[in-house]
Amino acid sequence: MTLQPSTSVQRLVLTVAVLASFIAFLDGTVINVALPAITREVGGGISTQQWVVDAYLITLGAIILLAGSLSDAFGRKRVLFWGLVGFLVASLLCAVAPSAAFLIGARALQGVAGALLVPSSLALILSTFSGAAQARAIGSWTAWTSTAFIAGPLIGGLLVDLASWRLVFAINVLPIAVTLVLLARLPADRPADAGARVDVLGAVLGVVGLGLPVFALIEQPNFGWASPVIFVPAIVGVVSFVAFILHERRPPQPMMPLSLFHVRNFSVGNVATTFFYGALSIGSFVLAVFLQQVGGYSATLAGLALLPVTIFSILLSTLFGRLAGVHGPRLFMCVGPLVSAAGFFLMLRISDEVNYWSEVFPGVVVFGLGLTITVAPLTSAILGAIDSSRAGIASAVNNAVSRVAGLVAIAALSFVVGSTLDLAGLHRAVIATGVLMVIAGVVSGLGIVNGAKPARVQAAGPA
């Protein structure tokens, strides 16, 4: 169903979509500044910190493809409801976690629920808006949801310093309750497709293929690659992922239709997403932890350090989404990552003094501008290239790519910074972040096509 712009239903859809996605994205980043406080209370070192982040990202990235298929087959509203309820329960479990192992398990459950939220919310927008109104709606969605990546450290820092890290999770109760009330006001889903079914084997292979290699990356500094604790999961995971790709060519309703990648802007955009969001995960994680553990910043100040990025995103994301809708996304997807990279390269000026205004702030401002230029056009280019009937799975694939890129980047972080994060490690991480962003800009400049029309992609059949 496509409505004219600015109807009450469209406004309600956009509000629900923003709230649902914001909740999922926020919990992926709000945790960063709480990590030192968490490990002080429940124990553990850098490996525990990595697992608290990656347990969420592993299940989010692995389940999100299945969630996209469920959204297309059984209805966006229904999937959103169960995602919100599951996220509420998992958040409360995180808030009362008595140990690191319990918290990591609860974070994994949070990721499962979060996976149900994002593709359904974007699919709601794509099926309700069209044309220029769709570009503006995606820009608005991007403006608010992308702030979660940056507002998370600020909110988390305030809660950690003023109360307890446990409130980082307990605070989810209020926005989830509001979203559930608004969701109930949306029109009912269309009837489920006849013969709709879940690609169970694909889901299992995807989870194993993603989860085990990441486990190996996180734990290899502790055991070494020669240990069977590491190389067995790594081999099983890689084999499972290959089997997942091969399997997805066969079922009539695959979890990830490989034919989606025949569409140029979709495939190129997802390659750019891999590099850009991998870089974003490294940069935000390392900076938040470094400012506290080395710079001596409080959790609140570490969160405030990235406030300029939030301001840019809120003020300008809708503008860049609209401009990309008029002029095409290619220029913005090329220039934005390059500007973001320049911001991180400026952070090479950070010294042992960690002076915010002279060493951190300039890079944060430039990075924030580049991020804002990039995100809405990137989302529009990828999802605008696919017919709205496949909006759920297209959104799920793109979000899976970004989350998996982030979790692999965090899991591999020890290769860049070593076992402890010091000034030299920060500089190496900043360089790695900038290089990945440059690659994203180059890929977009060479591969994205302006004016691409939505392609109707079949869910079945070989790719």
Automatic annotation (TrEMBL):
The cellular location(s) given in this protein's UniProt record come to:
Cell membrane
What residue ranges are annotated as transmembrane? 12-35, 55-74, 81-105, 111-129, 141-160, 166-186, 198-218, 224-246, 267-291, 297-319, 331-348, 360-384, 396-417, 429-449
Instruction: Report how it sits in the membrane.
Output: Multi-pass membrane protein
Sorted alphabetically, the Gene Ontology cellular component annotations on this record are: plasma membrane
Q: Which segments constitute the Major facilitator superfamily (MFS) profile domain?
A: 13-452
Q: Which Pfam families match?
A: MFS_1
Its primary localisation, in coarse terms, equals membrane
Annotated keywords = Cell membrane, Membrane, Transmembrane, Transmembrane helix, Transport
**An example molecular function term from Gene Ontology annotations:** transmembrane transporter activity
Which InterPro entries does the UniProt record give? EmrB-like, MFS, MFS_dom, MFS_trans_sf
PANTHER family per record: EXPORT PROTEIN, MAJOR FACILITATOR SUPERFAMILY MULTIDRUG TRANSPORTER MFSC
Q: What protein am I looking at?
A: EmrB/QacA subfamily drug resistance transporter
Species in which this protein is naturally found? Cryobacterium roopkundense
Output the lineage of the source organism: Bacteria, Bacillati, Actinomycetota, Actinomycetes, Micrococcales
